[in-house]
Amino acid sequence: MTHSxxxxxxxxxxxxxxxxxxxxxxxxxRVPDAHLFSTLARTGGLFRAxxxxxxxxxxxxxxxxxxxxxxxLRVATLRDCGYELDHHIxxxxxxxxxxxxxxxxxxxxxxxxxPRERALLTAVDELVTTRDIGDDGWTELAAHLSExxxxxxxxxxxxxxxxxxxxxxxxxxxxxxGSPSPxxxxxxxxxxxxxxxxxxxxGSRR
Length: 206
Description:
10 helices; Alkylhydroperoxidase AhpD family core domain-containing protein; 61% helix; 206 residues; CMD-like; AhpD-like; elongated; peroxidase; oxidoreductase; mainly alpha
């Protein structure tokens, strides 16, 4: 197992405010330590600004909670980011994403989707793999979403794509939920596109 490159912070390293935030988060998600948060909290005020920005993406974003989790889970699958999958499979259940829908997200836009969801997933795949959405894909997506929602999709994909890179590069370990995680125990979570070397960052499956 590869060790984290930056150790999660303790009270002394984080200070009282950031330490308290990380403890509240860990308790809320029922883990001993929320490693992503206790690592990023070492950045001081930047961490708190990132928390606010992230919350405006999820759960208080422009898209519906269901759409948001579909996007995040597809990004996590493409990036092969176990940390994101562990958390957002759980969050997705609360938003109404059952096992059958999760399997479709893993398959991607070629699964049996309604036109709006197919356009959304196609856009996610293009953004992660090419860093752009082609004119045809944009036109199709714009037929289903408002301009405000279109901007939100691009920003949401960028947020979780970037987060997968951060998790992988810093070698942030997956959180201990006390039982096998849904991401590690379900063989359906690996899609052919998720194994592409161009999409994976080192250690992102932790």
